[in-house]
Amino acid sequence: MVYRCIRIFTVILGCFSTWTQADEFAVEFSGFASLAVSYSDDPDIDFRSNYLNDEKAGWSIDRDSILGGQVNISLAQEWDSVVQVVLQDREIKDFSNYLELAFVRYRPNRNWSVRGGRINSDMYLLSEYPSVGYAYLWARPPHEHYAFASTVSHYDGFDVEYSSDVNEGYLRVKLAAAQTEPKLGALNQDFSIKFNNILTLSTTYVKDAWTFRASTSKADIREFKSDQFSSLINALNAIPPSLWSQAADYAQGFDAKNKNINYSALGLAYDNFDWLFQAEIGTVNSDWLISPSNYTGYVSLGYRIGELTYFASLSVAKNKNAKPQVAPPELPSYLPEEIRLATLQLVEGTDIASKRAIVDQYSFNIGAKWYFSNNLVIKAQIDHFVLQPIGGGLWDMAAQTDVASKHQINLFSLSGSVVF
Amino acid sequence: MVVNKENDIKTLSKREVIDIYMGRYLTFPNGANAQPLDLPAQSSLKNDFYLKLVNQDERKINAYWARLLFSGRAKPPEAVESVDDALKKIKISEFSIAYIPESELTDAVKVVYRLNEN
């Protein structure tokens, strides 16, 4: 899909370069970067800043380091285009995972705009610019809330936006229709998920120092390409119900067919001269075992003294449904030993797979952002994560790690972020 | 706030100046293109302008524009080298708008808003 969009985009650009007058056509380059060194203190549990990035324990210089380039192209008075590529530590090194924006926009008048191509989502307060460390307070967007958002932070389609002054404030309403196929990796396996028929409705209202956002989104899960899960589903479907009656239910639960996912979120930010307050809550509803339903949210407070802004945050992600417990079936005594063992292995594999996606964690962080110069900010941050038993779905755990136990992890980060 | 004398706009409210300088709209209220100009970075004129307009200093404005630029929403105002440079651009461009100190006001441009107004 993305390549088809790029081809269409290139053709449109080519047409405009001949249609438009020379003084209307302009190309401008800009960029942003973060160089970040961080240390995660549990060697058996790897941290990743979002679902698309590689997971690591211990010291890392590429966990949160990012280099982004953007070109803004003015095509005509009402037409423009933006292309943005962001290099970061993606688990799967596919070009589509690095292309953030590639859209053409038409603004027929002051209040309306329409974009087509690869567009970004504005579901959450930071979801339009999660990679631009210079633009926000923390070393990275709050993990519990934004790790989920990465898979649908951009998609291929179109959106229509209306903006207007309302009651001394500024109101923006946007409707997007799109699809996306993020390429992910976990447990040394590559997989991709195709989200079809994504519909996102968001509204943002800005008045004085306050920003309020509400959004909702739905998507159909169409294709889930994973050798590991395909094998598991096939094995579960091959088990006779007389041996394990729940096997077919688990196969259906893991299968992406006819599954859908819904996101909704509320965000509030207050940013006056010295005080910064930001909070978001979100809910994910899904009947797919690989992406179970969750509540997420965070609260953050910052206070500026001179060139330094000190901050503290609390973030939470909590599973909505009861944590699964796959009960081993009572196998008949006449069963041959190898079939009995294979069945019990499958039960164990099903138990692990159904538990590994569950997210139940919270974290505290404190830190400071130092406005070093006009283009450079330096940040230091300490996060303390608490992973509840069977709640480490955002992390990659070594095989010997007991997922049924509580884990506590500290993450230290020091970064410099620039814009150019 | 000054514009070209040929610009149809006669006056702007503070809210309309905020709309243009904070990238909410790319046009004047009448729909004509608006090209806001910014005085040099780290100048007291620029800092004072944003403090009076939106109670934000240059640091916060820079972060704000990083958000708008890299979310693909809008481009920041065009930076000029001096008040003289701003006045020259206003004289030749019907679309430009700039903030200048009252002491440097000339008859060659039209005043559409004064920052000490409400």
TrEMBL record, chain A:
Claim: Signal is one of the keywords in the record: yes
Keywords: Signal
Signal peptide start and end residues: 1-22
Protein name: Porin domain-containing protein
The species this protein was found in: Paraglaciecola hydrolytica
